[in-house]
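Q: what does this look like with pyridoxal-5'-phosphate bound?
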Amino acid sequence: MSELYRLLPSVDLILQRISESGRHAHLPRPLLKDLVNVHLGQLRADIRSGKLTASEELRWPALEGPLHAFLDRTSRPHFRRVINATGVVVHTNLGRSLLARQAVQAVTEACAHYSNLEFSLDTGQRGSRYTHVEELLCRLTGAEAGLVVNNNAAAVLLMLDTLAKGREVVVSRGQLVEIGGSFRIPDVMARSGAVLREVGATNRTHLHDYERAITPETAALLKVHASNYRIIGFHKEVSLREMVALGDQHGLPVLDDLGSGNFFDFTPYGLGHEPTVQEAVAAGAAVVTFSGDKVLGGPQAGIIVGRRAYIEPIKKNPMNRALRIDKMTLAALEATLRLYLDPELARREIPTLRMITATPDELRRRANKLARSLRRTLGQSAKVVLLPGSSRVGGGAYPEQDLPTTLVGIHPIVHALGVETVRDRLLDVDPPLVGRIEHDAFCLDPRTLSDAEHALAAQVLASVLHP
Ligand SMILES: *Cc1c(COP(=O)(O)O)cnc(C)c1O
């Protein structure tokens, strides 16, 4: 064993060999040295455990390949691009919405140059970062005023902190939802200092339930979009309009957390009706909050619109400063909102909308194209088939809605590789590819895979199927 240890090359020799190979030249030398030490440590541990016994394995030619692979793997950025072949459009774990190219361009401009972020070009004096999108938001939603914060959780927190701190907010029990990532309405309310007044039963809440809960302590009535779940069967919810009528009688604002808010009507594309932001504003909600990066298809943001009398104090809340959006978000959001001025342009240009509204025919065509590309690249190593399947909107929107699609299924043939192994190994390639297993095949959904990614997907699959 000690014989084997002695065969291990020194760090300096290895560094020299790496330098001669011309690879990893971009790695700072101290980091390279640390990584080589880590790798040598692993080799020593393998000798100790008896995993490594042959002296040939410790000579440079044999060490070289695994060392380069180790350096490639450990030195690449941790936060990386991933290919989403899951068919879940607003995939929260994979970064929710992709930005439209106009938004990407606006972000690039905003980062590379100085801007009028908080500078008024009319007066040459200090300006406000919030004015850039307020007018657009008002035009698109019909609201009197608006502002944008870091995300919708922040929007809800800020709204309640401003309008209901230390007072009561009436909410239906059926709407006390958990969104995921530990965002729970009751917890956010507690943090904001608003006191939760639950009314109704889990499945049914009536107008008189709200009415009976109103006391001099009541600050507002809150409606929360149930987002990620549906109650089916014996069920009743009070409409926003009814809540507004009740609120008006008592001089109370109705706050509406729409969650995955949108300006776009998806019913012509076969999806069920979801209230748009315009509808919530028109129904008389005092304040409406929604996410920028869910079905809206923009950057991460929490958008707050509504009546000026309620929005102004929200803007002035000191907490707003802690939740403010940065210039990249602002640039992306303005560019995205501009596209909505023409809904058809928005549908074509905003990736989230384009993916959700892709037709079954189009998806079948794209599945065929993807299958041809995969067959060409994978050859005899896999059988590629087309399968009927369904995609999801994701992001807590349309939880029960199946979007019909055509999946491209892969059955590995070589080395009797299992589909689970293929799925796992695809996470360790560059870029990683995330798909799903259905009908015993590893499946790719063309809905979330752009045509430009077909060749790349084929290439990473090939690297896994014939390593
Ligand atoms: C998603 C969601 C939130 C949280 O929004 P983020 O933008 O993820 O912070 C809040 N409320 C509802 C109803 C939601 O669906």
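The chain has a mean pLDDT of 94. The first strand starts at residue 83 and ends at 84.
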